[in-house]
Amino acid sequence: MTIMRATYRTPFDWNGLISWLAARAIPGVEVVEDGVYARGAVRVWHGAAAVHTTSEPERVRRVFDLDTDPAAIHAALGRDRMLAPLLGKRPGVRVPGAWDPFELAVRAIVGQQVSVAGARTILGRIAAAHTLTPERLAEVTVEGMPRKRAETIRILAREVANGAIVLGRDDLTQLPGIGPWTASYIAMRLGDADAFPAGDLILRRNAGNLTERELLKRSEKWRPYRAYAAMLLWMG
Fold first, then answer.
1. Which residues of the chain form CATH 1.10.340.30?
2. Distance CA 56, CA 148 (A)
3. What is the structure's pLDDT at 182?
4. What is the location of CATH 3.30.310.20 in the chain?
5. Average pLDDT over residues 185-197
6. Which CATH superfamily is domain 4-67 in?
7. Residue 73: band (very low, low, confident or very high) from pLDDT cuts 50, 70, 90
8. CATH number for the domain whose boundaries are 101-235
9. What's the 3-state SS for the chain?
């Protein structure tokens, strides 16, 4: 077996990143066990100051956010009174990327107004009954979730399968059932370091019960790394 070694700039919060992915792993699609992320034949683990993978090195770099510059994040966020203590706890914070952009979009839609565990269960059922591809989900109405949300997935799948849209925020928010929170969450996990879902209830609560408008105003100081600020607030 060929093992590839992927380096990164330190510090690197592997434990926080792998815990985030483990909590959201889709049953039957991916799994995290004993610190190893597995998806099909791919295995990813950390050791000796590097991330190791059996295949898909470019995807692994994206999912584990290996190209980010922690020094730049510290410069942007480290002097903020709200974020500095959180950054001190997770100095190598990363934003988990997406193995597959369309799959991520489905995750985000399923995750609207439900718990992480609830979304994971629903996604596992969808993956078992169908496949998480636009071609397949364009043809079906998924069960086990609100009808409007299921229709949003079907419409998105149809548009992606037909090549009518890419998964950018402007395109996404034109579709029924996809608002700023969903579009921003997708954007941050597709590599937009400044995407920020300010309407998120947990972000607002962890930021001191701010209103969405207040949090947006506060977040202006965190540019261009607001996605990393969101991760710090979510992870606590």
1. 101-235
2. 35
3. 96
4. 4-67
5. 97
6. DNA-3-methyladenine glycosylase AlkA, N-terminal domain (3.30.310.20)
7. very high
8. 1.10.340.30
9. CCCEEECCCCCCCHHHHHHHHHHCCCCCCCEEECCEEEECCEEEEEECCEEEECCCHHHHHHHCCCCCCHHHHHHHHCCCCCCHHHHHHCCCCCCCCCCCHHHHHHHHHHCCCCCHHHHHHHHHHHHHHCCCCHHHHCCCCCCCCCHHHHHHHHHHHHHHHCCCCCCCHHHHCCCCCCCHHHHHHHHHHCCCCCCCCCCCHHHHHHCCCCCHHHHHHHHHHHCCCHHHHHHHHHHC
Q: Quick one: which of 71, 62, 123 has its CA closest to 93?
A: 71
User: Which amino acid appears at position 53 of this protein?
Assistant: T
Q: What is the pLDDT of residues 12-57, one digit of tens each?
A: 999 999 999 999 999 999 999 999 999 999 999 999 999 999 999 9
